[in-house]
Write a structure and sequence with these properties.
By secondary structure, the protein is an all-alpha fold. Helices cover 65% and strands 2% of the residues. The protein has 19 helices and two strands. Strand 1 and strand 2 form a beta hairpin. Helix 10 packs across helix 13 and helix 14 runs parallel beside helix 17. The longest helix is centred in the first third of the chain and has 33 residues. The protein is elongated, with a radius of gyration of 35 Å.
Length: 468
């Protein structure tokens, strides 16, 4: 819909309203414009009158500018330019000379009209207009259909009224604004809008969490953030996007971080990867939002790895295949989680590495029998025996592709961050394949092929001198 809306504004609205600055519209002309625009909007949505969609509902979805209001707005701006043109001689000579002499109370006629309107608006109407606009925005947040073109017109008016602020661009207050022309908009509207936004979402968050789970709350926050972004693009000034987003993130995420952290472990236990990904995307928006999640993930992976080995310790003590595959199952599960839900964020990758280093090298299998000491050669020994069983010729050997996958998996587990490596631990192996035979050969040259594991380095292996 966003793309259709832009195409409609660029191609159709600009064409239909071409020259509308000098139109003298009668009531019948305005009605025809409205009917034509409504028909086009319904065509965009693929609905007909038989669907019994009200015009307000159609306009709520399309969010297009009303042609009659846009024509009137253009006519008003054009009238100011005409008056400015009438006094062009005055602008070029006397006014220009006064401005060059430093008289800041003198403006060209076009600017003077806007400044006069700004003083009238600021002194008599600004508070009521801003309150009305904020009330419309709150109604829209509550699901009520509104005429967004009204808000767009007021916002454009506030921006336009900052035209003379460029003259006072040296003042400290104006210097805080990137574009001094937006000073009126920010003072009359944006500041009050941000405060109203904070109050609305503070109340909504407290009410929603009383009767809904954290996962449902995260979905609602995700939807609300997207709505606010669309709202800013639709009828607010683009400069409001950053402060609006920060305020929403502060109220909806930062103040609820403790609830997110408490729910994180439960989501890990229940393998709720989609919800974990949603939590990551939300917490990433705020400073320090991921710190506790990384710690919780590391502790969870460590426990899961140790528990998985505890369940198979009787068999895994003498079965390298069971030992290695148990490690791979845990590692692959959380490796996929980190690459998917957490998008390979460096902190979560590091948490996975630290946890894997612990549960792979210090577990119930590596503890020496009858002692609490950790055997530094147990894990390398089990891995070497597992790889040797894959490479060894046998009638039960797997096919090439399956063997390749097994070697790749064991190669991942033998990463230096998990296993202490010594380069001369075992002889190196490479595969040479032909159509008639598969042979395993030892090689010490520097021109080895890129096999799944170019060479296997294992620390303190007691069998490293034996011929495999």
């Amino acid at each position: 819909m966003k793309t259709r809306r832009r195409l409609f504004e660029i191609c159709i609205t600009s064409t239909v309203l071409y020259g509308s600055e000098v139109w003298a519209l009668r009531s019948s002309d305005k009605e025809r414009l409205s009917i034509t625009q409504r028909k086009m909007e319904r065509k965009m949505l693929g609905v007909t009158l038989r669907g019994r969609w009200r015009n307000e509902r159609v306009r709520e979805i399309t969010k297009l500018r009303d042609w009659n209001r846009e024509a009137l707005s253009r006519k008003a701006r054009w009238a100011l330019k005409v008056v400015d043109g009438i006094f062009a001689y005055l602008n070029r000579h006397w006014i220009k000379r006064e401005l060059e002499n430093g008289n800041t109370n003198i403006h060209v006629i076009y600017t003077l009209a806007l400044v006069t309107w700004k003083h009238i608006l600021r002194d008599h109407m600004a508070n009521n207009i801003t309150a009305g606009v904020l009330d419309l925005i709150e109604q829209e947040r509550q699901g009520v259909a509104i005429t967004s073109s009204l808000i767009k017109g007021v916002v454009d008016c506030f921006v336009e009224l900052g035209i003379d602020e460029m003259v006072d661009s040296t003042s400290p207050e104006t210097a805080k604004v990137v574009n001094p022309k937006l000073r009126v908009y920010k003072k009359m509207f944006e500041e009050k809008f941000i405060i109203a936004t904070e109050n609305f979402y503070t109340n909504e968050a407290a009410t929603f969490l009383q009767s809904n789970s954290i996962t449902e709350y995260m979905k609602r926050v995700e939807r609300r953030l997207n709505e606010e972004k669309d709202r800013c693009e639709m009828y607010l000034n683009r400069s409001s996007l950053t402060p609006l987003a920060r305020k929403c993130e502060e109220v909806l995420i930062s103040k609820q971080l403790e609830l997110f952290q408490n729910e994180f472990c439960s989501l890990l236990e229940n393998h709720r990867d989609e919800d974990l990904g949603r939590m990551y995307m939300l917490c990433e928006r705020v400073e320090g939002g991921l710190d506790e999640l990384r710690k919780a993930l590391e502790e969870h992976i460590r426990k899961q790895g140790l528990n998985a080995l505890e369940k198979v310790k009787d068999q895994a003590h003498n079965d390298p295949k069971c030992f290695v595959q148990t490690l791979l199952e845990v590692h692959n599960r959380y490796s996929n989680l980190v690459s998917g839900a957490f998008q390979n964020e460096s902190g979560f990758v590091q948490a996975l590495d630290k946890a894997a280093t612990i549960f792979i090298n210090k577990n119930c299998i590596t503890h020496a029998e009858g002692s609490n000491a950790v055997s530094s050669s147990k894990c390398p020994d089990m891995l070497a025996r597992y790889c040797d069983s894959i490479l060894r010729k046998s009638a039960k050997n797997s096919e090439d592709t399956e063997m390749e996958e097994q070697l790749k998996s064991s190669g991942k587990s033998s990463h230096p961050s998990y296993w202490t490596a010594v380069t001369d631990s075992l002889p190196s192996f490479r595969w040479s394949s032909s159509s008639t035979s598969k042979t395993r050969t030892s090689s010490n040259d520097s021109t080895r092929r890129n096999s799944p594991i170019d060479w296997l380095d294992l620390s303190l292996h007691p069998m490293k001198q034996n011929k495999v």
